[in-house]
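Hey, I was hoping to borrow your eyes for a little while. A protein chain has come my way and I'm curious about its shape. Take your time with it, there's no hurry, and the full record follows here:
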Amino acid sequence: MKKLVTVFISMLILVGCGGGSSNETTAASSSGAASSSAAVSGYTFKAGGTVIAMNAEAQPLIEAIGGDPKYFESASCAFEGLDKEYTYSGFVLKTYPVEDKDYVNSVTLYDDSVSTPEGIAIGSSLEDVESAYGAGGTSTVKEYTMDKSKLMILLEDGSVTSIQYIAITE
C-alpha cells in the first residue's frame, strides 16, 4: 500500500512539475490546446454534459461545469504563470498556463461518484479495466496513451484505487 501511495504521489508531482519545454506556446498549440468547440481527441472525462479533453482551454470548460469548486493556485514549476486546481465533487481538474490562457493538465477521479466514459470508477475490477482499455501495463499500474493524453489507472488487490487523465505537453 505504501508503495502505491508513493508511486501515485510521485506521478502527481511529475504532472505538476514536468512536461515543460523551451517553447511552451508551440507545445500547447501543437498538443491540442483549443477552445471547447474544437474537435476533441485523446482520452476525455465527462463532467455532467461537459467533455473535458487534456490540453483544451480550461476557462470555457470550468464555466460549463459550473458549481462552486474549491480553488487553489501556485507558481508553476514547468511554465510561466500559475498552475490552478479546481476540486469538484468526485474529481480534481488541474491547469497549466500558456501566455494569457490556462489549459487542462490533468483530471484525477478521487471517489466512485464519477467514472470514465467507459464506466470505470474507483473500485472497478482489473478485469473491467482490461475489458474497457486492454491489457497494457502491470496488474497494479495500467497506462494508456492516445494522441496527446495519457490515462493512468492504479490498482491494489485487483481493484481500482486511482484514475488520472494526464496531458502530454511536450
About this structure: The mean pLDDT is 83. The chain has one domain: 2-167. Helices lie at 2-17, 24-30, 58-65, 126-133. The first strand starts at residue 44 and ends at 47.
